[in-house]
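Reopening: structure tokens for the nicotinamide-adenine-dinucleotide complex, inputs below.
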Amino acid sequence: MAVVVTGGAGFIGSHLVEALLARGDEVHVLDDLSTGVLENVPAAATFHLHDIREPLDTIVRAVEARSIIHLAAQADVRVSVAEPGRDAAINVLGTVNVLEAARLAGARVVFASTGGAIYGECERPAREDDPCLPLSPYGAAKLAGEGYLGAFARLYGVAHVALRFGNVYGPRQNPHGEAGVVAIFLGRLLSGETCRIFGDGSQGRDYVFAGDVARAMLSALDSDVGGVLNIGTGIATTVLELYEVCRSVAGSDARAVHEAERVGELGRSVLDGGLAATAIDFHAGTSLSAGVAATWHSLQASN
Ligand SMILES: NC(=O)c1ccc[n+]([C@@H]2O[C@H](COP(=O)([O-])OP(=O)(O)OC[C@H]3O[C@@H](n4cnc5c(N)ncnc54)[C@H](O)[C@@H]3O)[C@@H](O)[C@H]2O)c1
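Re-run output (same inputs, fresh job):
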């Protein structure tokens, strides 16, 4: 029985595909390579060049997939603000196409959702039943995706679980992108460019290592748990603290410059992982310093 991974050529997808292959699963990566790269797809996985805005049931049925892990997305909050229609076409309609394929193939869906873009401001670690107040079209589209998951379950019995990730970081995250502050800081420290901190750097985020997220997806895949689970560490790290960790790992004493605070940016986003601990025995085991060090070494090696 096979597993289809949409977005498997991307950053998080590459960690997941590696973990699935390591345990002997038959893996089919479905990706349009808009932000992902073919080098992220190991030779042992079968690659299908496909845009999820088009139906994918033919592929999913042909490979007799037992599950679809749905990571393909327009994953940049700022792009979603600039182009909400394109974001919705990929993140809402694309998810509907994934669900249609799952229905027709009898496959279960594991959906990559987001905690950071769904809960809004967090005075304490957010729980799954807290109010959802997305601040961006990206967050609204992910929440809509979760809504469709529920509707397809009630209407057709399509089994699913949605995983709301914290701020995922690790090897292979794009250091030249606009998202992914760990990769951006480390990329700049490596090239000798000055790092920029927006506002006073007190913004707190739940940084979770990509290898831990891949483990969470495997556990969710193997269980029959449904609904929504947070995948984070429960720890809020400020941008200033993160910069210190990055500097220390890179052996640098470079100072960052502060720039104007970005409009709409959350002060604090952190996830309560209690439900995932109970439901799928997930605990994010990688410390921030170990995860940042692994990311640094991988960036150095690829340079
Ligand atoms: N990185 C994070 O911190 C984070 C946090 C919460 C949720 N997520 C979610 O996790 C998933 C993976 O994110 P990532 O950080 O690896 O991003 P990424 O951009 O590296 O990966 C997304 C992948 O989807 C592919 N893709 C995009 N549009 C497509 C389309 N129309 N058809 C087919 N493939 C398409 C891209 O080519 C890429 O390989 C996304 O769903 C994202 O929303 C990420």
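The longest helix spans residues 84-105. The chain is about 40% helix and 20% strand. Marking as resolved unless the reporter disagrees.
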